[in-house]
Amino acid sequence: EPEVTQTPSHQVTQMGQEVILRCVPISNHLYFYWYRQILGQKVEFLVSFYNNEISEKSEIFDDQFSVERPDGSNFTLKIRSTKLEDSAMYFCASGTSGTVSYEQYFGPGTRLTVT
Amino acid sequence: GEDVEQSLFLSVREGDSSVINCTYTDSSSTYLYWYKQEPGAGLQLLTYIFSNMDMKQDQRLTVLLNKKDKHLSLRIADTQTGDSAIYFCAESIAGNNRKLIWGLGTSLAVNP
């Protein structure tokens, strides 16, 4: 069964460093998302991506964040200058474009630790 | 604003039914979802219901939606120890972006 994959599973970085979190969505999906979950808090929407552009972003998704779909299979989230408060589990999700299906399938997540 | 609330913990005995409850605030919700997260794992889509439905059944899972009270529940029949996990309720709001708004999750403990 196809699934969303994410790498790395755990990333440790120093404050101020850039990180790139990678995701491979399910191959025939057209909608892509990033969410994050800070420990003990709700899962939060960061950004949605469709047709090679951002379709919506949350207030969290400020100028230090960017997303890219560089090669038609990968979907990346870049954090330019990490802060301590960026430490969280980051989930990538993908969804179909079907009129009936609003399903979003999630990857296993990348745990980002900023020290 | 958009908000989803769930109780944090539920403990049941193996073989009993579990009922996990969720309330949401946005009346423009289109789909409501239940996701399961096992320890160390990602978010697994269990089931979802369209907002114009009252009930959906899928094997051991029954979803009930009371749109008037903005209340969603997930019933797991014959709960097994393998059902121990965190269960998240989420809603998507009308529109093209389909972003999900999440509850904090209910931790289900199944005791033998």
Describe this structure in words.
Chain A is globular. In chain A, the strands form two sheets. In chain A, strands 2, 4, 5, 6, 9, 10 and 11 form a seven-stranded mixed beta sheet that branches. A four-stranded antiparallel beta sheet of chain A has the order 1-3-8-7, with no helix packed on it. With 115 residues, chain A is an all-beta fold. Chain A has no helices and eleven strands. Chain B is an all-beta fold and 112 residues long. In chain B, β9 and β10 form a beta hairpin. Chain B is globular. At the A-B interface, β4, β5, β9 and β10 of A face β4, β5, β9 and β10 of B.
Could you give a quick summary of the protein structure above?
Helices cover 0% and strands 50% of the residues of chain A. With 112 residues, chain B is an all-beta fold.
- The counted number of beta strands of chain B is 11
The gyration radius over C-alpha positions of chain A equals 14 Å
Give the SSE string of chain A.
EEEEEEEEEEE
Mean pLDDT of chain A: 92
Query: In percent, how much strand structure appears in the residues of chain B?
Result: over 45%
Instruction: Work out the helix count of chain A.
Output: 0
Most extensive protein-chain contact, per-chain counts:
A-B, 25 and 22 residues
SSE string of chain B: EEEEEEEEEEE
- Quaternary state of the chains: heterodimer
Helix content of chain A: under 10%
Structural class of chain A: mainly beta
Strand content of chain A: over 45%
Strand count, sense and barrel status of the largest sheet of chain A are: 7 strands, mixed
What distance separates the N and C termini of chain A?
37 Å
Uncertain runs of chain A: none
- Taking the alpha carbons of the first and last residues of chain B, their distance comes to 41 Å
Architecture blueprint of SSEs:
The complex is a heterodimer of chains A (about 120) and B (about 110).
Chain A: E1 5-7, E2 10-13, E3 19-24, E4 31-37, E5 43-50, E6 53-57, E7 65-68, E8 75-79, E9 88-95, E10 104-106, E11 110-114
Parallel strand pairs in A: 2-11
Antiparallel strand pairs in A: 1-3, 3-8, 4-5, 4-9, 5-6, 7-8, 9-10, 9-11
Chain B: E1 4-6, E2 9-13, E3 18-24, E4 29-37, E5 44-50, E6 55-58, E7 61-66, E8 71-76, E9 85-93, E10 100-102, E11 106-111
Parallel strand pairs in B: 2-11
Antiparallel strand pairs in B: 1-3, 3-8, 4-5, 4-9, 6-7, 7-8, 9-10, 9-11
